[in-house]
Amino acid sequence: MAERFVLAGYDVGDVIADAAPAQVWHATHVASGEPVELLRLPAHPAVVARVRREADVLTAIDDPHLLAPREVIEADDALVVVTDAMVGRLARLLLTRDRLATPEAVTILAPLAGSLAAAHRHGVVHGDVDPSTIGFTAAGRPLLAAAGVAPALALAGPDDDAAAKFAPADDVHDLAAVGFRLLAGRAPTSEPDEPTYLATIAGEVSPLAGLAPATPPAVIAAIEAGLRAEPADRPDAAEFAAALLRASPTAPVRLVGMTPPPAPPPSAPLAPTAPPDPMPAAVAEPLPPAPPARPIDASSRRPIPRRLVIAAVAIGVLVAAVAVGAASARSHQPSAATLPIPRSTAHPTHPPATGVPSWTPPAAPHRPPAATWRRVVANLEAARAAAFDAADPGRLHAVYRSGVPGLAADRSRIDRLAARGERISGFTTTVQRARPLSRSNGHVRLRVVDRLSPYRIVDNTGRVVRRGRGRGARPELLQLVRTASGWRIDLVKAWPAARR
């Protein structure tokens, strides 16, 4: 658990999400009594420079569907971004509602596609569109969090070119995957618990019409166009928004199970409340031409009305930890984020809102330290990457216990790509944490937080044919079993939202 910190002017509450290298916290603005959220990011020079540069661009956009910051504070070795507390996020809504009606889904998708189009024209790529980075105002207006933060955080990694691998077409793909989830009640992959991006490369996306037969054909066509494997074949964000608006009417989203943040005390000035806005003009009207980006001359602490949108809305990057089991834990493009090599998981496709892992915290003192388990998991992940890099499914026996779904799924991935003369190369998994939860009879359950590097799809000559972006830090439940050859992966599950 992250250690509580002190920030002048704010009463810092409980942590919302802790996914290294950043955390999100509940807080209250002392002067006004207003509830806020604090995003605490590492003050890596490259990250700070990227965030501040793109923040200026996003300020010029002034889009109603990008969550605005209240203040940005550089303190010690951290960058803290203060935002209003949203009513809730789409990931939380999907805990209560299995799927949405088509007009409600279009109400969410179309304006956000318009916001992405504006960002893309200004040279900003979101990089992590999924249910955890989509939220709502009390009036029901959809908001897009975390614009540009995933590419910025990638600069803190070992790959200096990581941020350049995020592309506008990837944002369209991610938003289309969200649309698929809203309409079908599950992810677009052939195995509902797996992430989406590599599945689209391998041609494994399930037909939406079979899963959501009541959806208008034109909406299905728009969603499936956004999920095309080749980025060049996808519509751009503006075209995606227009196609959705032509295909379906809109309707306000029923925010079941979402509780607005508490109101400030009467003495605090209140902003006027906007009427319900199911289809904002930002989508229906032409967007202004993009002004050139300009660098930000930032002081260490200052209020920034709509200034640091990209960093402030990065709450969504961390609240990827709030995404529901199969709804998002392995459903969006490298997230934030997505595992380039999917693994089968064993949690239900639609977990209940109160679902938690069924284990008992260990009482026995004889446990290897967390650092030891981190090395064990890192070695298994390295062996898995080597199997894909060599296009050799036989190497997966050094990763998985025989007969488990993950082994079969990874073998199928390697075989499908090999049949096309392709393989996956250059991805690495950084295991940031591996905390033991229980151990008995040669099994151990771990809470693992890891992140994945960008990767490449190469042909038999080594020529790069496509690129993947990797994903940011995300928790999962990993069960290992001791075999005669050492520890092997027995089970991989998304970490339940209620325990993140």
Task: Write up what this structure looks like.
The structure is a single chain. The termini are close together. The chain has 500 residues and is of the alpha+beta class. It is built from 15 helices and 17 strands.
Shape designation: globular
Q: Helical content, roughly? A: 25-40%
* Mean pLDDT value: 74
Number of helices: 15
- Class computed from helices, strands and strand pairing: alpha+beta
Q: Mind describing the biggest β-sheet?
A: 6 strands, antiparallel
Strand tally, please? 17
Can you tag this structure with a few keywords?
six-stranded antiparallel sheet; 30% helix; 500 residues; alpha+beta
What topology emerges from the helices and strands here?
Blueprint: E1 10-19, E2 22-29, E3 35-42, H1 45-61, E4 69-75, E5 78-84, E6 88-89, H2 90-96, H3 102-121, E7 134-136, E8 142-144, H4 149-154, H5 168-184, H6 197-201, H7 208-211, H8 217-226, H9 237-247, H10 281-284, E9 301-303, H11 309-312, H12 315-318, H13 325-328, E10 334-337, H14 370-389, H15 405-419, E11 422-425, E12 429-440, E13 443-452, E14 455-459, E15 464-468, E16 471-483, E17 486-494
Antiparallel strand pairs: 1-2, 2-3, 3-5, 4-5, 4-9, 6-7, 7-8, 11-14, 12-13, 13-16, 14-15, 16-17
Helix pairs in contact: 3-5, 3-9, 5-8, 8-9
Quick recap:
The chain has 500 residues and is of the alpha+beta class.
